[in-house]
Amino acid sequence: MATKTREVTPRMEEANRQNSQKSTGPRTPEGRQKVRYNALKHGLYGKPCMQFMLAADEDPKEHQAILAGLTESFHPFTPAQRMLVEDLAMLRWQKRRNQRAQAAAISVALEELDINTEELRKQRDREDSGMSFDRAEVEQKGLINMPDCPGKFWQIRDSLKGLLDQVERKQFDVDATPTLILLYGNQPSLRGNFLCGCFYKFLTQKPTDLQYEQLRVAVIDELIEWTQKYQTFMRRYMEVTPARRDLCFAPNDEAKWRLILRQEANIDRQIERKTRLLWEMQEVDLKRRQDEQWQEIVRQEEEAAKAREAEARAQEEEQARVIDEVAREIGEKMAKMQEQSRAGGQVDENKQAVSVEGQESKAEEQGPGVENQG
Fold first, then answer.
1. Do 220 and 169 lie in a common domain?
2. Together in a domain, 64 and 117
3. Of 131-140, 168-177, 310-319, which gets the smallest average pLDDT?
4. 84-104 tens-digit pLDDT
């Protein structure tokens, strides 16, 4: 079945043309510079150029300081050695980036710890914390079997304190069934089953001193147990202990940390390899400088280089002299042309003056005759 295409009217074409003029991207050099590194994923292997460093919030002076320090330490005296020193400076800069990545990963883990802790604190501070449980599920399982949250522990502790207060006052004629169902539901624990049986029994039968003490001890034990659970929950999830903060320094994202550490090890191997190569080159160069035959070869090469420099300098001087001569000749020709043009102008002026004087003399000669005729 053929699909229908919408006909484009001249008005629509004009609207599309005007809208396209608004989507041209940055036009100024500053705007283009800002969006230049928008597609950058990571800068580990970025070259230490000025624009990239500024975009990555790096100080180019620090890279220059590293290069100057390595140059002062190794004292390279050949182009090859200087290239190796530059490679070492770049590798050291990449290692600093790797260390920044490790610090950033740890900082992100610390921030996540603080954010999660703050969220739990907000949850604790909300009045309805833990009260979003399903009512039917709470009646079936009880708060004790519901997922842990601050509101759950608060409600359990408040309910147990109410039961303990009822036991302390010996108010067994008050029905504690709603509180017991809220705590244990239809699946009570052994202690919960004991508490439910005692409160049901004591509604119609006064307990003995032994039974009263057993019930009181059971309620206190239950309250102590859930208070300890609440404290453990707070320490585990809500208190930012030194141990939890120190744990952020350990790798938590295995794949990411494996890549970062592998990159660091690769950079260290390259630094070691290039440093060893630089030392070997310096030892070889030192032995060569001590060899008389090699010194003679170096001296001949230096003399040949000086000769080439002198020849090049002589050629430059010759070229400069030829250029000066050509410029002088052109200047002389221009001066002659100007003098000729000025001389031609004076001749034309003299001719014009002579012609004017001749016309005036002719007019004077013809003047009396014309008056007589008049």
1. yes
2. yes
3. 131-140
4. 999 999 899 889 888 888 888
As a whole number of angstroms, the distance between CA 241 and CA 106 comes to 16
The pLDDT of residue 372 is above 70: no
Tokens coding 362: 């002719």
What phi and psi values does residue 3 have, to the nearest 5 degrees? -90, 145
Statement to judge: residues 139 and 239 lie in one domain: yes
- Does residue 14 lie in a domain region? no
- Same structural domain, 115 and 258: yes
CB 156 within 8 A of CB 143: yes
How many structural domains comprise the chain?
A: 2
Q: Cα separation of 186 and 277, whole Å?
A: 78
Query: 181 lies in a domain?
Result: yes
Residue 118 vs residue 222, higher pLDDT:
222
- Domain span at residue 183? 135-247
Virtual torsion, Cα 57, 59, 64, 66, nearest 10 deg: -80
Same domain, 184 and 280: no
Fill in the amino acid letter for 300.
Q
Of 106, 104, 99, 64, the closest CA to residue 85 belongs to 64
Same domain, 231 and 148: yes
What is the full DSSP assignment across 180-193? HHHHHTTS--HHHH
The reported pLDDT for the residue numbered 128 is: 47
- Please answer whether residues 122 and 149 qualify as being in contact, where contact means their C-beta atoms are separated by less than 8 angstroms: no
User: Please, what is the end-to-end C-alpha distance for the chain in angstroms?
Assistant: 112
CA distance 191 to 196: 9
Query: In this predicted structure, what is the pLDDT of residue 370?
Result: 43
* Structural domain includes residue 96: yes
For 154-209, the pLDDT digits (tens) are 889 999 999 999 899 888 888 888 888 888 988 788 888 898 889 888 888 888 88
In a domain, 310, yes or no: no
CA–CA separation, 305 and 224 (whole Å)? 93
pTM over 0.85: no
Task: Tell which residue, 63, 68, 34, 65, has the closest CA to residue 51.
Answer: 34
What's residue 371's pLDDT?
A: 44
* Helical ranges in 126-203 per DSSP H: 135-141, 150-169, 177-184, 190-202
The reply to whether 87 and 187 lie within a common domain is no
Both 178 and 225 in one domain: the answer is yes
